[in-house]
């Protein structure tokens, strides 16, 4: 069905609630190498309970089950988790100031490397497209770039200083080795490597450049990598839809933006074909009230199945959803 058909009606169907974490769930990540014709989808989630859980959907029952609990490595909240593009490694960032690298060895997840250097809480971690670089960011206001070496070794390539407050998130461009970081200082900084191998800030996106007038919480790119969506208390072009802080935003392959916020709701936006508006404009496709009992910390589209979404919340649960056409 055409997303831009104003007569199209959608509903968000809850497929399953995944329970097991004993504290708020901060982040989740779909394994990009799973969910294809011959493999079932796998999700990693991380929590204030200091653990990471690995969830897999059963081919037989289509039900999601917890396959592993990664514990006794981080000593404080695990704030961020992300799979490498090949799906072989999982990186987890923690308030204990470390980033752990996990590898699935014969069905058993092992911590194969621990990255140390940040002064305090690590808030986010991101792999580049070629899996040769890893970025981390922290409350210490710095962004670190790590070079991935043979044998699961990681070498610090650069410490990027420029933000004046807590750095909330790092995100690599989907195709180029350009890094984006967003911060409590209300800016997004764009970092790139010069010909001599040094990393520099090549652009700062702030309020003066149609940026944000409050904390920038998250960044997501469209599939082509030529558009970026960011979120704060109100998304600039989508102002007025959320009553509370927006914590997460994610762009699907077919161009649907999902957002999760402190008002416990999940919303979906699509580009509007309004010829009267100069440049792209977006309209609200669907709002799901009370998607969770508490703040929605993260929304992530499945990389393998169209219109399947996972969300996680302060209520300690992960939910799997399908954005379906309403048949009524």
UniProtKB/TrEMBL annotation:
Q: Where are the WD repeats?
A: 18-56, 71-103, 115-148, 160-191, 289-328
Keyword set includes Repeat: yes
- The reply to whether Cytoplasm figures as a keyword in the UniProt entry is no
Q: Tell me which CDD domains the record gives.
A: WD40
GO BP terms in the entry: iron-sulfur cluster assembly
Q: Which InterPro entries match?
A: CIAO1/Cia1, WD40/YVTN_repeat-like_dom_sf, WD40_PAC1, WD40_repeat_CS, WD40_repeat_dom_sf, WD40_rpt
Q: Which UniProt keywords apply?
A: Repeat, WD repeat
Q: What Pfam family is a match for this entry?
A: WD40
Provide a GO CC annotation, any one: cytosolic [4Fe-4S] assembly targeting complex
Mind telling me which HAMAP family this protein's record contains?
A: ciao1 (MF_03037)
Family named by the database record = Belongs to the WD repeat CIA1 family.
What is known about what this protein does? Essential component of the cytosolic iron-sulfur (Fe/S) protein assembly machinery. Required for the maturation of extramitochondrial Fe/S proteins.
Q: What is this protein called?
A: Probable cytosolic iron-sulfur protein assembly protein CIAO1 homolog
Origin species, per record, is Linum tenue
């Amino acid at each position: 069905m055409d997303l831009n058909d104003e007569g199209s009606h959608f509903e968000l169907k809850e497929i399953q609630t995944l329970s097991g974490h004993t504290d708020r769930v901060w982040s989740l990540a779909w394994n990009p190498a799973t969910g294809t014709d011959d493999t079932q989808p796998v999700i990693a989630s991380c929590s204030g309970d200091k653990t990471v859980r690995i969830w897999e959907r059963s081919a037989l029952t289509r039900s999601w089950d917890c396959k592993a609990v990664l514990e006794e490595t981080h000593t404080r909240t695990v704030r961020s988790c992300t799979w490498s593009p090949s799906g072989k490694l999982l990186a987890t960032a923690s308030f204990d100031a470390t980033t752990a690298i996990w590898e699935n060895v014969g069905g058993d997840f092992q911590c194969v490397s621990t990255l140390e250097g940040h002064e305090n809480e690590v808030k986010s971690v991101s792999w580049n497209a070629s899996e040769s670089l890893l970025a981390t960011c922290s409350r210490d206001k710095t962004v670190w770039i790590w070079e991935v070496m043979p044998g699961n070794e990681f070498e610090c390539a650069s410490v990027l200083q420029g933000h004046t407050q807590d750095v909330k998130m790092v995100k690599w461009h989907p195709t180029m080795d350009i890094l984006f970081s967003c911060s409590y200082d209300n800016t997004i900084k764009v970092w790139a490597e010069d010909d001599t191998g040094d990393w520099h800030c090549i652009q700062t996106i702030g309020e003066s450049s149609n940026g944000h007038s409050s904390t920038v919480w998250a960044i997501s790119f469209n599939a082509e990598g030529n558009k970026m969506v960011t979120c704060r208390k109100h998304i600039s072009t989508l102002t007025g839809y959320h009553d509370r802080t927006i914590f997460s935003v994610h762009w699907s392959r077919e161009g649907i933006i999902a957002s999760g916020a402190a008002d416990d709701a999940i919303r979906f936006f699509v580009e509007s074909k309004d010829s009267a508006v100069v440049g792209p404009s977006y309209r609200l496709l669907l709002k799901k009230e009370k998607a969770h009992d508490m703040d929605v910390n993260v929304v992530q589209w499945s990389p393998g199945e169209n219109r399947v979404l996972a969300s996680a919340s302060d209520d300690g649960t992960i939910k799997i959803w399908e954005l379906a056409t309403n048949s009524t």
